[in-house]
Amino acid sequence: MKPIRKAVFPVAGLGTRFLPATKTIPKEMLPVVDKPVIQHVVEEARAAGIEHFIFVTGRGKGAIEDHFDHVFELNATLHQRGRDEDLARLKDNTPLPGRTSFTRQQEPLGLGHAVWCARDLVGDEPFAVLLPDMLHEGVTPCLADMIKERAQHGGQVIAAYEVPEHETHRYGILDLHGETQGTPRIHAMIEKPQKGKAPSNFAISGRYILSPEIFDVLEHQQRGAGGEIQLTDAMVTLMNTVPYHAHLFRGRVFDTGHQLGFLTANIAYALKRPDIGEELRAIIKELM
Ligand code: G1P
């Protein structure tokens, strides 16, 4: 079984839900406490042993590329001021030279199309996809657990979490034949089902382990929900030939692509911080 060495981060989305904040700043660079959302997700991938980070970007996303580079002047200034701890943290957050790649999705044709844009960079090996909007906070990193499950079950692994019934139309939804434990087989999936038509309330949480065959399917994939080329539809096509299993993520998922999820993530992550958590708790109580 080939190891999972590469991860794809689709970061081309316009972030219109966060205008005007995202007029000049990529939505992935908005901070959850003091780290950009994308940094949290890249750290999850690193913790799972990912070696190469592939970003599918778009116009106006240059800040992401700069963020994963060293800033010589900043490093020198921090060193001069004796702030070596901050310097070490910055360096630790930066991938090794040659371990990042950036390619552009030239048209906003959907998630499936964004993943397809990474085909040459991924090549002929299984890979992970992490959607930066979705932050997974659990005892162990979500992707690391998925890689272990793949080693046990083979095939593709898709992470899922339970969402309230009235939110199922916002996500890709899995049919698990009623199973809610272990690493169940996925029997079907549907992208953004109409209200009342979801086969379960297990939503795809934005973490995937896929095999490279998906690229051939994506190449010919017709537009689906929302008029976009959907990754979920391409996975459905492959379901007859490769087994899919669900990783039922038991921690908390924050959908930072929506205001409430973004704010909740900030509060939750800040409350856990030893330096500011206690004070923030008191301030929140006061505000209420
Ligand atoms: C995408 C996927 C969907 C998944 C969701 C998680 O949708 O297509 O299956 O449940 O991410 O955030 P999007 O949020 O891009 O509309």
Task: Describe the model.
- With 288 residues, the chain is α/β, with parallel strands linked by helices.
- The protein has one domain: Spore Coat Polysaccharide Biosynthesis Protein SpsA, Chain A, CATH 3.90.550.10.
- It has helices spanning 37-47, 62-67, 72-80, 84-92, 111-116, 119-122, 142-153, 213-219, 231-238, 259-271, 277-287; strands spanning 6-10, 31-32, 35-36, 52-57, 100-104, 127-130, 134-137, 156-162, 172-175, 188-191, 202-210, 244-248, 252-255.
- The strands form four sheets. A seven-stranded mixed sheet has the order 5-4-1-6-11-8-12. The protein has a two-stranded antiparallel sheet with strand order 2-3. The protein has a two-stranded antiparallel ribbon with strand order 7-13.
- It is globular, with a radius of gyration of 19 Å.
- Bound molecules: 1-O-phosphono-alpha-D-glucopyranose.
- 1-O-phosphono-alpha-D-glucopyranose binds next to strand 11 and helix 9.
- The site of 1-O-phosphono-alpha-D-glucopyranose (G1P) has 15 residues, from strand 11 and helix 9.
